[in-house]
Amino acid sequence: MNLTGQHFLGFERSGENPEYFTAINPATNEAFGVKYHVAGQNEINRALVKAEEIFTGYSEVTAKQKASFLNLIADLILEAGDQLIEICMAETGLANGRITGERARTINQIRLFAGLVLEGSWVEATIDTAIPERQPAPRPDIRSMLIPIGPVVVFGASNFPLAFSVAGGDTISALAGGNPVIVKAHPAHPGTSEIIANCISEAAKRSGMPDGTFSMLYDSGYNTGRLLVVHPQIRAVAFTGSFAGGKALYDLAQTRPDPIPVFAEMSSVNPIFVLPEALKTSAGSIAKAIAGSVTLGAGQFCTNPGLVFFIGDENTVKLPEFLGEEIRKSIPQTMLTPGIAGNYHKDVSHALADKNINLLMESAEASGQNQAKPVIALVSGAAFEQNKNLSSEVFGPFSLVVSCDSKDQMLRIARSLHGQLTASIFHDADKDLDDFTLLPGILKTKVGRLIFNGIPTGVEVCHAMIHGGPFPATTDSRFTSVGTSSIKRFVRPVALQDCAHSLLPPELRDDNPMGIMRLINGKRSNQS
Amino acid sequence: MNLTGQHFLGFERSGENPEYFTAINPATNEAFGVKYHVAGQNEINRALVKAEEIFTGYSEVTAKQKASFLNLIADLILEAGDQLIEICMAETGLANGRITGERARTINQIRLFAGLVLEGSWVEATIDTAIPERQPAPRPDIRSMLIPIGPVVVFGASNFPLAFSVAGGDTISALAGGNPVIVKAHPAHPGTSEIIANCISEAAKRSGMPDGTFSMLYDSGYNTGRLLVVHPQIRAVAFTGSFAGGKALYDLAQTRPDPIPVFAEMSSVNPIFVLPEALKTSAGSIAKAIAGSVTLGAGQFCTNPGLVFFIGDENTVKLPEFLGEEIRKSIPQTMLTPGIAGNYHKDVSHALADKNINLLMESAEASGQNQAKPVIALVSGAAFEQNKNLSSEVFGPFSLVVSCDSKDQMLRIARSLHGQLTASIFHDADKDLDDFTLLPGILKTKVGRLIFNGIPTGVEVCHAMIHGGPFPATTDSRFTSVGTSSIKRFVRPVALQDCAHSLLPPELRDDNPMGIMRLINGKRSNQS
After folding, report:
1. A371: Cβ–Cβ under 8 A, 6 or more apart, which residues?
2. What is the CATH number of the domain that holds A434?
3. Cis peptide, bond prior to residue B136, ω within 30 of zero
4. Catalytic residue among A302, A326, A362, A404
5. How far is B20 from chain A (nearest CA, A)?
6. Are A388 and A485 part of one and the same domain?
7. Separation of alpha carbons B248 and B226, rounded Å
8. Which contiguous run of DSSP H or E holds residue B224?
9. Same domain, A303 and A188
10. What distance separates the 2 farthest-apart alpha carbons in chain A?
11. Looking at chain B, which residue has its C-alpha nearest residue A508?
12. Is residue B250 domain-resident?
């Protein structure tokens, strides 16, 4: 397709505002491609009016139609072929294998939601039938299910240009839930965004979805995002990115006359705890796994492990040495944007300037533009306990290895951590778990996902995945942004009391035409 | 039991602060009973430290133990017998039948949650088993379920001294979810609160629950509530009451360094739409039902209907006349507090001062202290459309009857309503629904519960009930505060990846010892 740099206001394309920005190749710092227009207030309004007007229409689309729509998006993304891969590589500095893999993940994710919608039980249909003869008052017939919440704003994330961007989990779960979506495209991959938006728009047209089901707006700054979050028609916000960005959007939404839910996935250092027996038996393989996770994708994953805890010191324990060896062999990679690369260098220098932090190892020097050099550093548990700032996220391939002086110190530090997306425990088969019985329980209160003998990167997209966690990992620990239950962010329950059978949606009809699992008078059944 | 006016700090009783308040009988304006101490910062901290310390312990109590604890609370409330009923009547001005009925509802509600916990499927256990041979990367074993969120503050509500107060739905759903609860007792029924708190505390002791599972603090002002909402140990807040109170707590929670969820059920006028054919055939019985709902419990229900819409005018349609006749026959009742009664009189006078609003009917004058005289007034649809304030809640037995000039006007008004707990449609069997096909869809976007041919008061406590709705009915439309799914307000999902089988909670074990319904590799099953 020919890129135009225009917004998608439903099926309308528009670029009436003369202000624009361009894509930048972070590997060369060169601008390339077309001019991407910055959205104007008028364009924002047109997209929102459409979304509001067709909300009821789209929310009443059948499960089968919605599943076809989603599957067609996946088909069209595959059909976009090499053009998508090439533009995405140029815009992000990510390698072909990574982008191709991420495309596969994105497509699987879309098909998983199509399957969820088609199967239908996710709506939590619940029926309590009438008991007319009950004393002192008859019981009415009450039937409830989850329904769409309304137009959703999705902020594309820079670090997953496909899986967490225009057709990523936020957009797809919101669409699957029956909500119109307005994407604020991330300016770091505008061409990638246009190709994907075109796939969604085209799929919507061909599947007969109403005009306004999907819109996408460009802006290189914050204005469009701000206007969207406070717009009266918007009913929910999804964001993946920095703590500063997510918290600002969250706070902004609270200034509305009617506050709306903001699901922001923001900040996590994904601590790893390596227990003593595991250190003895497997320090080499654990070091290899951790170093791989620290350096993967230039360390630009939400689940990048920023803290590694062990008991002992570098004289008694091999882990620091092995980790150092792995990092020494690693290779600097191009970061997503010049801004991200600049922040990484600044944050690493700042960390190493602390007199309690010792450089443990770094890779060879970077040779290209905006490359990040993997770095690990060592700090004592005592120094870590005294400086709260050491548990802040450094976005990139940096990790702080913390040598604890005792089990008590390790547990105390675990208790002091703030909310995280993940934590990991490396343990030997039995003894470690017997010796550290409290640790899993402590970490469970801190995280959305607790991993045993594994690294945090590699977020499986499945039904059981929870990619969330207590603040500041996210703004609402009651939800996940990955996996099928992420759809629950954008739906709300409604009850129908004594509703005429002809008005009931299929999910709540006596004959259960979709054959979904329902809770009927307290019993779960997929029968009618 | 002998009332003491002391707080419950876990199992400790305390009243060290000399500041106090007393109960007031709203039927006589007389103070009576013991002195109720106002909580001090030190007492608040002691309750919170206990809650935090035993959080993990209580969250790991087995389902069976938790169900026994809950059932014992219900038993002890019944055992409290006449003393509870008598004090509650004296503190609230509510009649014996109402309190006895509310006690039955409260006990049924507790037993419903005990059953939910015992059955166990509510945790949404989800298992995706490992696929070690998958390419390009093996799939890990991932298992997720809902776990407790942490210590919860519950604000007792004045209008349901049992069902929405100390052992009401908020406390019981939070305890059922595995969370310690700190109740801020409502000062309008402190003696009732002490008796109920004693039942919970005694049940906790006898069931072996840890000290700190339940606390209750008194305050006649706002300070204790404020300190609780911003306290670092608190993880969620539940409130039922006025818009001003709920929104203030919500906003306060956003000022925390770590914002926490506040579920406030606040404000609703519960509009009723009477359609033309129903008006023709059943105006008399509809008027009787609506008037009964407006005047029930002195109009002090969250689901009190404050707006009644019909098409036509009082010359062509009998509904206003019939409604007037019912209101004329109704009897003034004592309101819950002098403050509530004062506000009611002020709000009604203010409404009737509007030149577009005509008094339709009022009951005989009130004869006792703090009584509310039922009043209904009439306004044209045109005037209603021009004055947004007319859709504000008047807390008490007041309702505004709105005569629409057309179907279009009625639909336009329906579209303009803000969020509500409920809306009702009175319709004749078929024709009305055929003529007003858009109305149910419009109202569904506004409410938590849509009622057909029924009044909004009488909130059934069951699995399918949704007592919630878009802002300003609540602060989070994704949840309900009545019915078993209200437990979801106080839990969050956590995933365990490749967790040793010995560490898994029963809900996630391969052999499914509780026999709960689970989602395993995308299929729902209660098998192992």
Report:
1. A298, A332, A333, A334, A335, A341
2. 3.40.309.10
3. yes
4. A302
5. 36
6. no
7. 9
8. helix B223-229
9. no
10. 81
11. B464
12. yes
Q: Does residue A203 sit in the same domain as residue A315?
A: no
CA pair distance A224, A39, nearest whole angstrom: 7
Q: Are B476 and A258 within 8 A, CB to CB?
A: no
CATH of the domain at B226: 3.40.605.10
For residue B437, list chain A residues with Cβ-Cβ distance below 8 A. Answer: none
pTM of the model: 0.97
Residue A461 included in any domain? no
The answer to whether residues B255 and B387 belong to one domain is: no
| Contact between chains at A497 and B454 (C-beta distance less than 8 A) | yes
B433 chain-A contacts, CB cut-off 8 A: 500, 502-503
| A302 is annotated as an active-site residue | yes
Q: For each of chain A's 528 residues, which pLDDT tens digit applies?
A: 999 999 999 999 999 999 999 999 999 999 999 999 999 999 999 999 999 999 999 999 999 999 999 999 999 999 999 999 999 999 999 999 999 999 999 999 999 999 999 999 999 999 999 999 998 899 999 999 999 999 999 999 999 999 999 999 999 999 999 999 999 999 999 999 999 999 999 999 999 999 999 999 999 999 999 999 999 999 999 999 999 999 999 999 999 999 999 999 998 999 999 999 999 999 999 999 999 999 999 999 999 999 999 999 888 999 999 999 999 999 999 999 999 999 999 999 999 999 999 999 999 999 999 999 999 999 999 999 999 889 999 999 999 999 999 999 999 999 999 999 999 999 998 899 999 999 999 999 999 999 999 999 999 999 999 999 999 999 999 999 999 999 999 999 999 999 999 999 999 999 999 999 999 999 999 988
B298 and B222 belong to one structural domain: no
> What's the domain count of chain B?
2
Specify the residue for token string 């026999």. B515
Instruction: Say which of B302, B326, B393, B404 is annotated catalytic.
Output: B302
Is A202 in the active site?
no
Q: Do B128 and A449 lie within an 8 Å CB cutoff?
A: no
Residues A279 and A260 in one domain: no
Check: CB of residue B88 under 8 Å from CB of residue B189.
Answer: yes
Residue whose tokens read 């001062």? B353
Joined together, the tokens standing for residue B240 give 């039922």
- The verdict on residue A299 lying in a domain is yes
The beta-carbon neighbor of B464 closest among A115, A144, A502 is A144
Give the residue among A520, A507, A455 at the shortest CA–CA distance from A60: A507
ipTM: 0.97
Beta bridge partners of B371: B334
Contacts of A289 (CB under 8 A, 6+ apart): A454, A455
What is the span of the domain harbouring residue A210? 7-130+139-266+478-489
Name residue B400's amino acid: L
Token couple for B393: 């809640």
Same domain, yes or no, for A160 and A105?
yes
B234 and B316 part of one domain: no
Is residue A316 situated within a structural domain?
yes
Residues of A whose CB is below 8 A from B466: 144, 493-495
Residues of A within 8 A of B448 (CB-CB) are 492-495
